[in-house]
Amino acid sequence: MVDGREAFGMLNTSLPHSAGSGGIARARSLWASQAHPTKKWIPCTALRVEDGFATATDRTPTIRRRMSDTMSPKAAQALLPALREAIREAASLAMPFFRSGAQTTARTWSKAGGSPVTEADVAVDTFLKIRLSALLSEAAWLSEETSDDAIRLGSDLVWIVDPIDGTRAFLTGHPDWSISVALLAGGQPILGFVHAPVTDRFYEAVAGCGATCNGVPLSVSTQTGLRGAKVTGPKPMIDKLARGGSTNGEAVAVQIVPRVPSLALRVARVAEGSIDVGLVSSDARDWDLAGADLLLREAGGSVSDLEGTRTTYNRPDPVHGALIAMSDGLRDDVVAALTRG
């Protein structure tokens, strides 16, 4: 297993000059100056690995398998301790650059499309690529800060990573940014993680085994209709939902929740029941969604398009159209309202 110091020894050689390799050195220095105690993470009962197979303090060895193999729930669960550790450690690389309520100390530049990226994004991305690739060597890779490689299209297992989901929030000192990680098998997530370092909320899910936040099982809200539902997302989509939910010509009254900058966190909050409906405008990418989508599925909901069709991942184009994150109980009402609105 590659630890943080070994990973940082590889970082500078893997980055283009434009990515701010000096920032990687700064992150390495900051990381090395911090204490990194071993923590014992105890999963909820639904996620506990069978006795003798893996424990909360194990460092899971690299798993070698044919790409056509289907990963069993038992094998997926065995990865949990090492993944928790890697994601927590990745967060410790970003946090020294974060300033609550103030501009980040990280160097920043713009990508080709104009969206911002920081040296913290690159440090976390590179660190996770090293650690996760060592953990499951045959899995392909897709992330926001790494050039896309078409080899993933022929791979059954694929890591999907957003090193900092909500970079603008990170830049400006807003707490709602996250690290998002998913492992896909056959285009669907089988492991999903969303970690919000500032608030120390760690969400995880294994397909078929439930979802938790900090060890507490997640469940979507029990809201059964649009009236009074807690909704977040772009205002035009919220207005359309409210108009379409009307039965007497008046827009249905919903509770508008402030928009969550991190899309992964927005979906995670639907999974935990603090938001009933999360609306997503066009242009979300696989890495924004895959980890949180599994959380929501396991908690009793899903991410779907405006017709109610569930999302799929690892397609040639990772860009999605407009989407809805909602409980299964609200699906019919939400889809019908957006169709009418």
User: Strand-and-helix sequence, N→C?
Assistant: HHHHEEHEEHEEEEEEHEHEHEEH
Q: Major β-sheet, in short?
A: 7 strands, mixed
SS content category:
alpha+beta
Please give the share of residues in helix: 25-40%
Question: What is the typical, i.e. mean, pLDDT?
Answer: 85
Number of strands: 14
| Largest beta sheet: strand ordering | 3-4-5-6-7-8-9
Task: Describe the overall structure.
- This protein is of the alpha+beta class and 341 residues long.
- 33% of the residues lie in helices and 20% in strands.
- It has 10 helices and 14 strands.
- The strands form 3 sheets. Strands 3-4-5-6-7-8-9 form a 7-stranded mixed β-sheet, with helices on both faces.
- 48% of the residues are buried.
- Residues 1-21 and 34-68 have low confidence and may be disordered.
- Its cofactor is Mg(2+).
- Keywords: Hydrolase, Magnesium, Metal-binding.
- It holds the Pfam family Inositol_P.
